[in-house]
Design a protein that fits this description.
It is a single chain. The chain is of the alpha+beta class. The chain has 2 domains: about 180 residues, Ribosomal Protein S5, domain 2 (2-Layer Sandwich); about 180 residues, Alpha-Beta Plaits (2-Layer Sandwich). Helices cover about 30% and strands about 25% of the residues. It has 10 helices and 17 strands. The strands form 4 sheets. It has a 6-stranded mixed sheet. It has a 5-stranded mixed sheet with strand order 13-14-12-16-15. The structure holds ligand DP6.
Length: about 375
């Protein structure tokens, strides 16, 4: 039995290449279709969570990014209850109060997939506190659907399942990050002030109002899933790129078919999509693919060998008024090299359409951190 009653963990963000959009069970979070994602390296974007249980704590408490929040969140309580149901520790300890402290190492305001990392981290840390060994992706799923895919590294499939209780709606790894080590990810964080409809509300409205969603689920997604699995297995970037972009476009078409429409891509997002198609056309092959979630930011997939020319071109087409050094964060890279051979693109947008660019790669699943990384002090309060 585990002797640890304080656990600190990190969990990664994941980006879907075949999108989850729509639930057939709102409460259990069972999706209307399978989805596939790539887990991103925790080095540049991750959630970090410390959980402590103690007979001395007076009440359950949670702090998110430095602010105490109410623990009375049904999804959060569901995750805690479900883990406790599978717990293998003494019953006395199940009664101890719990303190949870969590933060992201990237700005939540950037609108990046923070709930996937957050709930994956919470459930992973809980599973270590309560000594739960089985597949925990179905529990992470009940925090936020996309979180179940962040339980694994590399390329991950989330299965809809057929059981009404959702017990077979789980995520499993298709291939580890090491299977396709050249895969790289570039996130373009778009400057945007518009308030967006949350994924939860947006997809609920889509299920209620969009006929196109039902067409997508019935006739299209399985084909996308099969081709994506084939692309990943064979490391076929052309197929990967085409299916990723088609699925993203179809997801946003379905959002537009929602009534009233859920509009997530803005003018800059569309400019990025056009840029990607022009770049590939100029290079005469697939060099890069885009995908957009429920917000305007773009996630680009490319191979390592294409990165210098692509990043160089991005800084020309979407210039910053600041320094290029501060503009590109993540994996260190020098794009000032004169020998960079970039395809000719004749578009140039105004400065500062993008806030910044994160250069990262596909990475591993959640991990435990040493006690020195704890976010809680000995009294169980945030440091
Ligand atoms: C567009 O997982 O945030 O990112 O299950 O209601 O919490 P809830 O929704 P969430 O939806 C993510 C939607 C998406 C596509 C995807 O990640 O597959």
């Amino acid at each position: 039995m585990s002797e640890n009653f304080v656990v600190t963990a990190t969990a990664p963000v994941n980006i879907a290449t075949i999108k989850y959009w729509g639930k057939k069970d709102e409460k259990l979070i069972i999706p209307v279709n399978d989805s596939i994602s790539a887990t991103l390296s925790s080095d540049y974007m991750c959630a970090k969570t410390t959980i402590a249980i103690s007979p001395n704590f007076e009440k359950d408490q949670i702090w998110l990014n430095g602010i105490e929040e109410s623990i009375e969140n049904p999804r959060l309580l569901n995750c805690i209850r479900n883990i406790k149901n599978k717990a293998k520790i003494g019953t006395d300890k199940l009664k101890w109060k719990i303190h949870i402290c969590s933060e992201n190492n990237f700005p939540t305001a950037a609108g990046l997939a923070s709930s996937s990392a957050g709930y994956a981290c919470l459930v992973y840390a809980l599973s270590h506190i309560y000594n739960v060994k089985e597949n925990i992706s179905d529990i992470a799923r009940q925090g936020s659907g996309s979180a179940c895919r962040s339980i694994y590294g590399g390329f991950v499939q989330w299965y809809t399942g057929i059981k009404n209780d959702g017990s077979d709606s789980i995520a499993l790894q298709l291939a580890p990050a090491s299977h396709w080590p050249e895969m790289r990810v570039i996130i373009l964080v778009v400057n945007d002030k518009q308030k967006k409809t949350s994924s939860t509300i947006g997809m609920q409205r889509t299920v209620e109002t969009s006929k196109l969603l039902h067409y997508r689920v019935k006739y299209c997604v399985q084909g996308h899933i099969d081709k994506m699995i084939q692309a990943i297995k064979n490391k076929n970037f052309d197929l990967f790129a085409e299916i990723t972009m088609r699925d993203s476009n179809q997801f946003h078409a379905v959002c537009l078919d929602t009534y009233p429409p859920a509009i997530y891509m803005n003018d800059t997002s569309h400019a990025i999509a056009s840029f990607v198609h022009e770049y590939n056309a100029a290079a005469n092959s697939y060099k890069v693919a885009y995908t957009f979630d429920a917000g305007p930011n773009a996630c680009l997939f490319t191979l390592e060998k294409n990165v210098p020319a692509l990043l160089y071109t991005i800084t020309k087409v979407f210039p910053t008024s600041g320094s290029v050094k501060d503009y590109i964060t993540g994996i260190p890279i020098n794009i000032e090299n004169k020998s960079i051979n970039a395809p000719e693109i004749n578009i140039s947008m105004q400065s500062d359409l993008l806030k910044y660019v994160i250069y990262t790669k596909v990475g591993e699943g959640p991990t435990l951190l040493p006690d020195t990384e704890s976010l809680l002090n000995r009294e169980g309060l945030p440091l």
